[in-house]
């Protein structure tokens, strides 16, 4: 893939409200413009203590130059009020801590957002829908722990399908070797037919957790699907704020899922799609982290991949879809 | 509660096939007889290494004297074949290791079984249905990790409801402080409206994980619901096989859930319903473990509670429902 010359395409400096780390952005092309929702951890100023997280909205005509809307999508209080209703719970408002890592998918012309939510009981994954990014309908929240949910842009046999990344720790040798699973739903509210898609032991460049990255794009050969893959090396001293040293490299991987059964991996690129090499990927809050959350297939065959770089900014890389497919080997 | 004089009511000696630890049994009254499905860990012979786990079936006319059917419900190979189909996965057969801890609920005259399933990706909870305990229809398997699922015996607004025990570890101070959650389903296949029911920090006699125990029973005041609650004391040296010493006491707790919104706790007994005291509760494979999986409300008001004792046998305790309700304090 080619990194864009204007990288990073979004940084905290472009945000007209308090913003420190601007990364992990879902992107879709919708209604004649590119729409991005990004995670903003604000108030850090180089300090790992931070004030909070919100989600910002940015618009672009070309997918490269972005204008950030004047306000974040919601105030924390709005999120807490929404989930208090959804979860029907009796816990204090601060039981819901934040929502983050949004991914966007357009299905039948409507926008859906998957997200992670931190609560007093752990991490859940959720799905919401909106027409205008002002009013959201909160459709579902999973039991904890799960996150990195991404929706496919069309239905399969009348069912919505999503990939997700549960956090199973029991009965396993490596407590952080988390896999990718898949589920389907008639209504985006009730989810079933959960099944395993890919284990971290099946990825040559991972020795720890993996997870869905951007929502898959449809090609003639199947669903081209990015994922993140973590390689841990305690001997590495990577850039980052963590006082005890940061030693996890997040690569982006690429796999092909069966056109009709998207739980079935039929191909994989044996090498990472991108490895952290550029300055803005290697240096930052958590260095050497590439975390794609948005992938767009242009009519001419160009693929735009938007990824969080070093948990600090949003970067863009491009490739022709045929070149990406050429890297896929049978799985 | 009164322990039954014939306790334990089921031990490995009553099982006509290899059986070592016979415990955690779901029980319902159905078609004029008591029906029990129990977990059987076989081949241990006092050794923590064991050959496997299956599920046995026992029948009783009085709920006290049980006759075990000649064969376990399914061979491991049958379970593996069933889940290979359900999960549509490409992993080897031994990726599915066992199913265990069954609970039974009768809804509209039909028998449903919830169970835990250990796989190469962790622990899932599942739901199946049967008419004859010969043929099972496998309805759903959750993403990992979750278990201790129990179904309510009736629907709420047309939806099935279950309690479950996810294993959230991220973002939490105590990695084993697992809570009780609730979900609902139109068809027992797709599950949604997940919401928190009870955290371990809300149980006076727990300092670690809690989980649903037997399926709830309906009373005039609400759903009388047992749960297990773990109290860890590393200074204790409890009976058991674990070489490093066993120090977890499993109490049974009792709570009352709202009649119309079963995710809402409206009352709780401040003291455990039963604490491990009898010889068969204190001594065994894991001593001081009381783990109810079956609760029956008789027409006269007697409540029968069936519980796994020391992960070794099945015991029975009884009480009048009014006496149990009298122990419930507002929550």
TrEMBL record, chains A, B:
GO molecular function terms noted in the UniProt entry: hydrolase activity
Pfam family membership, one: Glyco_hydro_130
Highest taxon, organism lineage: Bacteria
InterPro entries the UniProt entry points to: Glyco_hydro_beta-prop_sf, Mannoside_phosphorylase
Signal sequence annotation: none
Keyword field: Glycosyltransferase, Hydrolase, Transferase
CDD domains: GH130
SUPFAM superfamilies to which the protein is assigned, alphabetical: Arabinanase/levansucrase/invertase (SSF75005)
PANTHER family, per the entry: GLYCOSIDASE (PTHR34106)
Family stated for the protein in its record: Belongs to the glycosyl hydrolase 130 family.
Protein name listed in UniProt: Glycoside hydrolase family 130 protein
């Amino acid at each position: 893939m080619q990194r864009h010359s204007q990288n990073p395409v979004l940084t905290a400096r472009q945000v007209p409200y308090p913003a420190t780390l601007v990364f992990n952005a879902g992107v879709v092309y919708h209604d004649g413009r590119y729409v991005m929702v990004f995670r903003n951890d604000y108030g850090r100023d180089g300090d790992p203590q931070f004030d909070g997280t919100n989600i910002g909205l940015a618009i672009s005509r070309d997918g490269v130059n972005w204008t950030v809307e004047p306000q974040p999508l919601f105030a924390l209080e709005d999120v807490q009020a929404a989930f208090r209703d959804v979860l029907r719970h009796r816990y204090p408002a601060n039981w819901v801590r934040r929502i983050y890592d949004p991914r966007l998918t357009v299905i039948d012309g409507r926008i859906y957002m998957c997200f992670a939510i931190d609560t007093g009981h752990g991490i859940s994954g959720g799905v919401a829908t909106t027409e205008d990014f002002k009013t959201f309908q909160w459709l579902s929240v999973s039991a904890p722990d799960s996150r990195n949910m991404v929706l496919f842009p069309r239905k399969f046999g009348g069912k919505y399908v999503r990939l997700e990344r549960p956090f199973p720790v029991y009965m396993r040798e490596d407590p952080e070797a988390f896999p990718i699973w898949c589920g389907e739903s008639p209504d985006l509210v009730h989810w079933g037919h959960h099944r395993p898609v890919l284990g971290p032991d099946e990825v040559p460049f991972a020795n720890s957790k993996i997870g869905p990255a951007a929502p898959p794009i449809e090609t003639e050969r199947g669903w081209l699907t990015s994922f993140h893959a973590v390689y841990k090396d305690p001997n590495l001293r990577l850039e980052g704020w963590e006082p005890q040293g940061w030693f996890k490299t997040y690569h982006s991987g690429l796999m092909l899922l069966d056109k009709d059964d998207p739980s079935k991996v039929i191909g994989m690129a044996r090498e990472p799609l991108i490895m952290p090499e550029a300055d803005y990927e290697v240096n930052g809050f958590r260095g050497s982290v590439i975390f794609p959350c948005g992938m767009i297939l242009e009519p001419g065959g160009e693929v735009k991949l938007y990824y969080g770089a070093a948990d600090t900014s949003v970067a863009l890389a491009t490739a022709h879809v045929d070149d990406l497919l050429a890297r896929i080997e049978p799985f």
